[in-house]
Amino acid sequence: MLCGAATFALLWFFPQPLLTKESGPVKADVIVVLGGGQTERPRYAAELYRAAEAPLVICSGLGDCESNRRLLIREGVPVDAIQLENKSTNTSENARFTIETLRKLGAKRIIIVTTWYHSRRALNTFEHYAPDLTFYSRPSYYGTNRSEWTNNRTARYARMEYVKNLGYLIRYGVNPL
User: Which of 7, 37, 103, 117 to pair with 150, CA 20 to 30 A apart?
Assistant: First the structure.
C-alpha cells in the first residue's frame, strides 16, 4: 500500500521522466510537427529544420496546420519545405494520416515534434502504426519549469496524459511504455 502511494505521488508530482521521450539530435528525412500546444512545437520544428536535422516539415492536425505553417515560414522554413496533413483530430489520426504521406515520400527516418508531456505517447503511437519506419522524438520543453505550471495549465495536461495513455492502450493497443 505504501509503495503504491509513493509511486502514485512520484508520477503525479514528477511526470516528466515517465512522459518524456527524447531521442537527441538525429538526421532524418522528415520532421512531423503535431498540432496542439501554443507556439512551442512549430518553433522547435523550425529550429530543428535550421539545424539541418531534416529537409522537410509536415504539419499534422486539423485546426493548427495553417497557423503552424505560417509560424514555420516566419521562423525561416521555406514554403516548399512544408507539407500539411490537415484532417487529423487526435494523436492516432496524426499518426495514421501522416504515415500515408511519409510512405508516399519514401521517408524512413522521421522526427516527431510535440510537447514534452505528449512525446512518449506520440512516439509510441507512430511506432505502433508503422513499425517498419524509424521514429525519433524531439519534444519541446515549454512548461517544464514547475513555476510555469499554474499559469499555463501544464500540470493538468501532463496528468491527463496518464489517462490518455491508458485510453490509447485500451482503444488502439498502443503500449504506453
Answer: 7
Q: For residue 43, give the nearest of 57, 62, 22 by alpha carbon.
A: 57
C-alpha 65/C-alpha 35 separation (Å) is 7
Residue pair 127/152 in contact by the 8 Å Cβ criterion: no
Residue 42 lies in a domain: yes
d(CA 20, CA 60): 20
How does residue 38 score in pLDDT terms, banded at 50, 70 and 90?
confident
> In this predicted structure, what is the pLDDT of residue 93?
97
What is the reported pTM?
0.88
C-alpha torsion sign, points 164, 139, 60, 149: positive
- CATH number of the structural domain spanning residue 41: 3.40.50.620
